[in-house]
Amino acid sequence: MEARLKNLTEGLAALEQWVRYRLAELLGQGHKIEVEAVRSRLAGLELLPGQRLPFEENLALITVLAPHLRSDFFDRIFAEVLPQNGDYPSLGGLRGTQFRGFIPTGETLMFLLAGRDLKQRLFLKQLFEETHLFSREGLLYLDPAPPGEPILSGRLSMPSEIVSLLMSGVAEGPRFGIDFPAQHLTTDREWDELVLRPATRDQLAELRTWLTHRNHLLNEWGMGRVFRPGYRALFHGPPGTGKTFTATLLGKATGRDLFRIDLSMVISKYIGETEKNLEKVFSRAEHRDWILFFDEADALFGKRTGVRDAHDRYANQEVSYLLQRIEQFSGLVILASNLKSNIDTAFMRRFQSVVHFPAPGPEERYQIWRRLLPTQVRLEHGLDMRALCRGYELTGSNIMQFALLQTLSRQSDVLQKTDLLEAIEREYQKEGRSL
Each residue of 347-359: b (16+ CB within 10 Å) or e? Predict the structure, then answer.
């Protein structure tokens, strides 16, 4: 942490020297500065853990980071150097909705890097191109400018996890909310705890194989020229059969973060908002090698009917957008549905794998229940859990949770058959069935 604090302190000090140098140049004033010395100081910083970037890249990073570290960083310098009531469009910048300080734009960065040198400005345009490190790694980007305004008038933005990485050395994941409609799923469980039928487990092995060997296949063997990027899978089966749990374990087993997007929550009644909400997820995920898990896929990929009104037309646009974005995504995308028949057949050919999660059979139910049973709990004498699993077709961990709570309510550590039967009856009632 001390090394990071030292880097940030030196970065802000060097940036202040550079800003004052450029302002003096703008005003036609002399300002003594060892230009090459400051350039070397900035180039020598390790702002990104384990990487020393060139002067231009480090200046860009510390410029975007400065308001996060000192809210008055730019305003204080401007107040000391610039004449009052002056207007200096070449500085760029804007004010936020809640943040009252100066926020750098693309124009601000160009002013600091190139001044009025047009040739240099054109050369430095590469900083915002898709092939540049900033775009490839999702480190920094230029927000779209309002229609009709210069491109460089867009705000310089940095994802929250990169701000965290530069400030603390640890990249904290984005928080689930309106601005980021995806939830990070984790688990303490392990892959060998997963109880599935052999056919389902074999299909999942294909996904693990792709995640393990895709770089070798696409890059070293050069098959990226032939195959589409990414891998698309459909998980289908009744509720409670382990689709979400399996996806979470898949992420853990392969060392990847998994984010769940509930399409029924993302779809907006406002035209174009669905695409906007989803783009926030895709634009970050493609730089982080995340697994994207779309729950309730029927919400967008259900069987289509004729276009009756404007809402139907825009719904079709949303489907088209999501299909395009999924096919462009270079990582693993999993869509989940309770019923395969709910998914339009026109979409099925886009999946490399279609994995069925059937309701567990008697043996799977028994294994699930046994694994959910705490080591501190004993079974009532004569309780045959296998017989119960054969007699009642239920998936649920809800059954074991209710039964264990009943055991605790008696201040006991013995699980009774009546506890399980009562829990089973409750589940049947929820499903509108009778024992």
Answer: beeebebebebee
322 forms bridges with which residues in the sheet? none
Global confidence as pTM: 0.75
Please report the DSSP string for 202-262 in residue order.
HHHHHHHHHHHHHHIIIIIS-GGGTSPSSEEEEEE-STTSSHHHHHHHHHHHTT--EEEEE
pLDDT surpassing 90 at residue 70? yes
Q: Which two tokens stand for residue 178?
A: 């309106």
What confidence tens digit (pLDDT) does each residue in 129-143 have?
A: 988 999 888 899 999
For residues 118 and 375, what is the distance between their CA atoms, to the nearest angstrom?
Answer: 73
The sign of the CA dihedral 358, 364, 365, 371 is negative
Of 67-76, 166-175, 258-267, 315-324, highest mean pLDDT: 67-76
Domains annotated for the chain, with CATH where assigned, are 2-168 (no CATH), 183-356 (3.40.50.300), 362-430 (1.10.8.60)
Nearest to 152 by CA among 54, 26, 17, 60: 60
